[in-house]
């Protein structure tokens, strides 16, 4: 955990999380969205390198979105508007972690990922249950490329069931499909 955050009272951290949630809700209010102007709109469709077909494939399945580099970028941009990009960042960190071959690098990367995303009150804590958090903590003692599998799967499911449907309904994705 960040040393600065560790010195704050729990009530301050809870209020900060609450504020983060409220700001995310405000960004989705239609009456506020039009006041923000076009400069604040997501520029997801501005890149022509996204093929029309690829953009349309993202709605077929969450897997299709994750397979596409530009799809991941668009989804990440959307998650930033909801202040929930830590879920995707964790998932991507786990994917990168699985490619690590060196035992020493594996252990240090595992600890870094755990401290940043998994441990209680981590700076970018992902929403997983206590049991999964403890299983992951135990897996760190003998860090292998699979030590985050359960936590990563839970985070992926959360994104697929919660954030992904909102992304597909978002004005930014709708604009992209119209351009396609």
TrEMBL record:
SMART domains registered for this protein in UniProt: RGS
Molecular function in Gene Ontology: GTPase activator activity
InterPro entries the UniProt entry points to: RGS, RGS_sf, RGS_subdom1/3, RGS_subdomain_2
Membrane topology: Lipid-anchor
Pfam families linked to this entry: RGS
Cellular localisation: Membrane
Coiled coil: none
Gene Ontology CC: membrane
Domain named RGS: residues: 61-177
Chloroplast in keyword set: no
Name assigned to this protein: Regulator of G-protein signaling 16
Protein's organism: Antrostomus carolinensis
């Amino acid at each position: 955990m960040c040393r600065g955050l560790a010195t704050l009272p729990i009530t301050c951290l809870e209020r900060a999380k609450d504020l983060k949630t409220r700001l995310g809700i405000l960004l989705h209010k239609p009456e506020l969205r039009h006041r923000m102007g076009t400069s604040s709109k997501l520029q997801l469709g501005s890149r022509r390198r996204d093929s029309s077909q690829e953009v349309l494939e993202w709605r077929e399945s969450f897997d299709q979105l994750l397979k596409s580099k530009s799809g991941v970028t668009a989804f990440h941009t959307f998650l930033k508007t909801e202040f929930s990009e830590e879920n995707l960042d964790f998932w991507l960190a786990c994917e990168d972690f699985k490619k690590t071959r060196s035992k020493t690098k594996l252990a240090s990367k595992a600890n870094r990922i755990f401290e940043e995303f998994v441990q209680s009150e981590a700076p970018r804590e992902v929403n997983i249950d206590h049991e999964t958090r403890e299983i992951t903590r135990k897996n760190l003692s003998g860090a292998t490329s699979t030590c985050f599998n359960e936590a990563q799967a839970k985070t992926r499911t959360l994104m697929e069931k919660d954030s992904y449907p909102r992304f597909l309904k978002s004005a930014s994705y709708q604009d992209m499909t119209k351009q396609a």
